[in-house]
Structures are given as C-alpha cells and as structure tokens.
Predict the 3D structure of the following.
Amino acid sequence: MSGVGKGVASSSIATLLQARGHNVTAIKIDPYINVDAGTMNPTEHGEVFVLKDGLETDQDMGNYERFLNIDLPAINYMTTGSVYLSVIQKERNLEYKGRNVEVVPDIPLEVIRRIKQAAKEANADVVQVEVGGTVGEYQNVLFLEAIRMMKSDEPENVAVVMVSYLPVPGSIGEMKTKPTQTAVRALNSAGVFADVILCRSPIGVDMKRKEKIAKFCNVKVENVISAPDVDSIYSIPLNYEEDNLSLRLSDVLGLPHKKPIDLKAWKQFVNRSKSASEVVKIAVVGKYFNSGDFVLSDVYLSVLEAIKYSAYKLNLKPEISYLSSHDFADKKKLKELKKYDGVLVPGGFGATGIEGKLNVIEYVRKNKIPYFGICYGMQLAVLEFAQNVLKLKNASTEEIDPKAEHLVIGVMDEQRENVAAGKLGGTMRLGQYLTTLVGGTVAMKAYGKKEILERHRHRYEVNPAYIDALEAKGLHFSGKSPDGKLMEIAELSKLDHPFFVGVQFHPELQARPLDPHPLFTAFIEASYSSK
Ligand code: GLN
C-alpha cells in the first residue's frame, strides 16, 4: 500500500550501497500522466521538489539528494506522461524508421533507455530505481514490464526489492504475513520475482515469520529484512544494516566488497539529532496543512528537514509547529506567535490564506520575532513593508490583484507571455541561478561568500519601480541576480531586527543532513538567541 515509506526505504538502500564505496545514483518513477509534478496541487501530491536543472519532481527526489548528499539530474525522474511524451515525439520525428510503435515494448524500452542513460551520466556502479504506486495496480504495469525485461536480459545485474507491509492487528497482537504473500503473487504475475523483501511493520520481524515469508515467497531467509517503525527516518539505513542488507544486495548484484561499510558520518548525524536537549521553537505558517481531519506536513517536507539539520548542527532540539495562515486573518490570534522563537513563511501560490500571512509578517516584524520568508514568504514580506511602512495602501502582487494601484510584486518580463497564453506547465523560472550578495549584510555573513547558487521556482518578482523607496525605508536587497535586475534576497538591518530575511529562491532544496544550509542555520541561531 502507499505510505509505507518506499521513498525512504529506497534512499536508505542507496545510502548503504554508497557507504560501501559504490557510486550510486537514484531514479524515481511516478505512474501518473502529469509530465512533471509541478502542475499538481500540493495537498494532493505533497511537496514539489525542484532539481538543479529545473525539473519539478516528487519529494522522493529530495530524499535521495539528502540521503546521498548529491545533486541529481532531470534524467533521474520520470512519469508515465513524460515517457509517453518522448515516445510520441520520437515517433513524430520518424525515429522509429517507419515501424509500428506499440505500448509494449516501446514504452518499457524508453524506460530502460532512461535508466541506462542515468547510469551513464552519473558514471554509476549502481542505479537504484523506485517504482511508485502499488503492485497489482494498473498504472505501473509498464514499469514492472521494464524491470522484467531488464532482469531477463541481464539477470546478474538486476536486483528486485519488494517493500511490503506486515500488519499487527490490535485485536490479536500477532504479525500477519498473508498480505505479503498475496502481494508477492501479484508481483510474480507481472513476471517479476523479488530477490529481497523489506518488511515494513510497527515492530521487527521475528525468525519464525522470516522463515514463513522465505518459504512462501521464494526468497532466501537472509534476504527477508526487518524494517520496523522508527522515530527518525535517519535511523533506517542503520536498522537495515543490522540485517546486513547491503551485503545481501551486493551478493545479488555480484558487486565487489570494495571495503567495509563506512557509516561514521551518518551515525554521528543520527547521534547528534538524538542528543540535543535545548529546545528551539519554530512556527511554520502555511496554507496547505489541512486535509479533512488530518495535518499534511509533507507539503513543506524540505523546509522541515532543513530546519532540523541546522538545529542539530547547533546542538538544539527543534520543536516545529504547523500553523494555518487562515487562522491569522483574525488579528486577535496573533498574540499566539509570542510562544515561538522564530517564524517561517514558506513558498505558496494564489490568494487564499494571504491575509493571515501578511498579518503574521507585520506582527513578527514589529515584535522583533526572527522571520525567514521563502519565495512567496519573501514576496509577502516586501508587500507587507510596502503597505505598512511605505503606506502604499493599494499595494498588491500581480498574482492576486493585477489591477491594484501599486504592483509591488509583478510578473517577470519573461513570464508575461506564458501567463497570457495560459502556458503554465513547467514554465516558471526554475532551477539553479546565480545570486550576487552585498557585503556587510546578514545574508553575506551567513554564506561567507559573495556568489551563491540556489534553486528557484517562481513567476513573479519584486517590481524594480519600488526598489529605491523600499531601500530608503530600510528594507535592503542583499542578494541580486548578477545583472542586478532581479531581487533575490530582502532583509532588515541587524540594528532594526534580530533576523528578518526573505529569499526569492528555495534554500531548503539544498539543505542536507551532512551539510546544513547556512541561511537556515543563521535563522535558527538568531531564533535561539532571541529567546
Ligand atoms: N507564487 C509566487 C510566484 O509564482 C511564489 C512562488 C513560490 O513561493 N514558490 O512567484
């Protein structure tokens, strides 16, 4: 079933093989028709993770990058839509040389071509491929067929890992293997046979059940791996290694045992994450948190992880609260923000929840609570400043009120045509761009260098017509595009506020467990010291 942590399981497997000295890259396959993840509502899909080269992908790509501490290229992400699109484009270009192009084998062949291309681009020893969805569902059949074809061509080079869930029904308190047996049969009926079964469960799998699974699912008993629930996803690679997963996989793949596994840095990170006792309280004010009776923190996954890494680096225990911006449309509620050491407004789109966010920003600016605004969170900080300090009452962003008198945030020139023509899929300013920092600023101090590369995902920008007026009243643009035209960072001076920084880019996308992001670290540090 979905939600058993297949993405984290994949990231952990890749991490272990990397720690054995292999060059590992990771691919995610999503079964939907959307060509990329950028056109989906976050409440449906979770976070959109943007790769360095600008592709909008699934949050699992972020997990891989964070666990492996590497940047992944666009070839490493595919959806049913993107695979069909390339096959159809090739057909239109006569690349199939007049032959009949068919769902099978041409779709699986395109999948295999991409897997091999990703291996080549990364010069990888191992490519770890995660197939999204659930065995038995219609949508991922062609991807399973690609796996079957690859394994039948090169059996010694392909290992299949099935992630299964073993429930422990409360009424009987005994772990049940039947759903796994049934799932293995469903997988077998697609012609695919698992080499390793990862048993997700609330508790560890005992030997008796491992033997049962081995017998009924056609795998070696040592290839049945226990994967119980844990309090931190970062303990998972260490857990798998207790069952020798990396050795088991090396054996299936015939990988040389280059050297003993080296998980030193990883273990240090995990220990640090557990040992911190001093608390820092951070409020993330977003609008996509509520889904029926459930809270979806997945939508801001990279932001939450980035906060954690920087807090751990500073030996602090992060307590993150998810606050819905809708609640702060009522100004009486703003007092609640006093409880937090720092407030962060992440990226977003559209008009809903804006009033609450603007109220929050005004409150933290005036009450000197450390503030970190990301993308929309930066644009809204500029807008709030224009409304309340520059007293431009009819200031707005073109995104929500194109007729407003003062469009302090306007559509970027290069985007005007896209917006007018409704060409909205994959056309934002996406991926990595250079920012030049201004000396003597909070941003420059945090980064400790003048030129930085950060990933972007936006269509609007600070309107150049208002820059002088904003600067004159104390909102400084401390980071700009190299040609000086785009405002990438806005901040208040240290003399006016303990930390008030907004960034047009998404620093969270580059925060890594073993390499926390300097701006997040500066924000957490300022939050803790202004307690
Ligand atoms: N909606 C804003 C824009 O398109 C901000 C985007 C974001 O926060 N990712 O510019």
In short: Residues 103-122 form the longest helix (20 residues). The pocket of glutamine is lined by residues 347-349, 375-376, 379, 399, 457-460 (CB under 6 Å). The CA atoms of residues 276 and 421 lie 52 Å apart. The chain has 18 helices and 22 strands.
